[in-house]
Amino acid sequence: MQWVDSLRRMIEYIEETLPYPVSVEEAAKAAHVSPAHLQRAFSVLTGVSVGEYVRRRRLTIAAEDLSRGTERIIDVAYKYGYETPESFAKAFRRQHGITPKEAKLPGASLACYNRLVIQVSLKGEEMMKYSIVEREGFSVTGIKRKFSIENNAQQAEIPKLWGEVNSNGTSEKLFDLNNGQINGILGVCEDREDQSIDYWVATEYEGAVPDGFEKLVIPASTWAVFEVHGPMPDAMQQAWERIISEWLPSSRYELTGTSSFEMYTNDDPDSPDLYSEIWIPVK
């Protein structure tokens, strides 16, 4: 249940911080997870990004302030982080369907986004196949890109990178280079201290780094390795959802701060029998 407790701590941090700006890094510290893990888990479980949840909650509380009729619109706008009354009014209308001025009138109809409440539901009737693997540190070789994780921007950019490497021959070169225990191409998510990640498309490889590629050392870890069966990208997305919403809350394992990765084979990505893996570091 450590994962559930982490999400509860994160929500408490956000609610205590409102109406002031909420730092994803600080929210992740409160939850004792990395910013990248937090963003992924939050969006999987709620369907919105951390930033979107914060925006909705701030506009909900701002509407409550206006409905009392004692505060000026400009003061409420600045209080909730908007630089101008115009930008506040635009965001306010988008959520509530009325202007801030109309919200001050008696009987105004407002849209309320309540504080999230974490509840554990009975799931897991479908089997998940995984193994626990101990590995010393190992090297991977490939290409690296930096992506912002603010509002889950990486979710749109990472597929573009895969499209690029699959079309320009990079993936074929990586399959040819592979000489490690993991026989496939890896999508490695490496956390950074700011609101970004380094994302690698790489393969396990020992030897001189070829031109155009870089080297990353994956540290020694205990890994939970999950089997993924089915076509991409749906099968991978569904597997992540079940890991986050079912396996982590019910297992005795916790995420650690090292890199997680996905393993892809060279088979047909549209095949219903496609085999892939998700590796997450645990303790």
Automatic annotation (TrEMBL):
Keyword Transferase belongs to the record: no
Keywords from the named record: DNA-binding, Transcription, Transcription regulation
InterPro entries the record matches: AraC_E-bd, GyrI-like, Homeodomain-like_sf, HTH_AraC, HTH_AraC-typ_CS, MarA-like, Reg_factor_effector_dom_sf, Tscrpt_reg_AraC-type_HTH
Top-level taxon of origin: Bacteria
Chain ranges of the HTH araC/xylS-type domain: 8-106
Span of the signal peptide: none
A single GO molecular function term of this UniProt record: sequence-specific DNA binding
A Pfam family per the record: GyrI-like
Name under which the protein is recorded: AraC family transcriptional regulator
Organism: Alteribacter lacisalsi
Taxonomic path: Bacteria, Bacillati, Bacillota, Bacilli, Bacillales
